[in-house]
Amino acid sequence: MTAPATTVEEVTTARNTLGVKDYFDALVNIMRSPAGFYREIAEETGMRKAMLFLFVSAMFYSTVSMTYFYENSLTMGGVYLLNALVMPVLAAIFSFTLAGIVPGSNVRFDKIFSVYAYASGAIMVISWIPALSMILELFRAALVTVGLVRACGMGWIKSLCVVGMTAVLLLVFFWTLDPVLMELKALLTS
Predict the structure, then answer these.
(1) For 139, how many CA atoms within 13 A lie in the half-sphere containing its CB?
(2) Sign of CA pseudo-dihedral 94, 100, 105, 109
(3) Interior/surface letters 152-169, b for 16+ CB within 10 angstroms, e for the rest
(4) In 10 A of CB 9, how many CB atoms?
(5) What value does the mean pLDDT take over residues 52-58?
(6) CB-CB contact of 116 with 144 (8 Å)
(7) Could you tell me the maximum CA-CA distance found in the chain, to the nearest angstrom?
(8) Boundaries of each Yip1 domain copy (predicted)?
(9) What angle, rounded to 10 degrees, do the helices at 133-150 and 109-127 form?
(10) What is the reported pLDDT for 120?
(11) Phi, psi of 120 (to 5 degrees)
(12) Residues ≥6 apart with Cβ < 8 Å to 148
């Protein structure tokens, strides 16, 4: 048995690490009571714990997807891992920008990123099942909305608008990026 942390530095380090028990506790708590979970993480400092949670979930998601759908294709596993790590970051950036545009908003990026990281990480554990993808995307949006209210102190209407507009911005971003990538691909292959 380990002795309890005594110094401020030890307490901060203990709070910013993510053990196996911490991972599963976070996973169960975010599913059981999202509002209570996000109220607790409102007191977290930094993004390290949320990043570790997202990384572990992304590794699981990409590994299962790679073996189940692509017969152990390491390339596709890497694509899935990159997607699982980049999308929550991109969504958090868009949400942070949108939250900053609205008057009376004083939300820090680390809080918004933590909300997206925990919501995405929790959903990734089961989102590799194809039949559940659309339902789980709606559930992820609901988790993010609750997180923006509880962890970031936004109002319900504002957080619903931010989540909806973030989804629209993500769609527009990738629709605009698609022709550029196709043109780049044509240039590289010719």
Answers:
(1) 16
(2) positive
(3) bebeeebbbbbbebbbeb
(4) 9
(5) 96
(6) yes
(7) 64
(8) 29-175
(9) 150
(10) 97
(11) -65, -45
(12) 95, 99, 107, 112, 115, 154, 158, 159, 162, 163
Residue positions counted in the chain: 190
> pLDDT grade, residue 82 (50/70/90)?
very high
CA 75 to CA 110: how far, in whole Å? 31
As given in the structure block, the two tokens for residue 111 are: 């809080």
- pLDDT value of position 5: 53
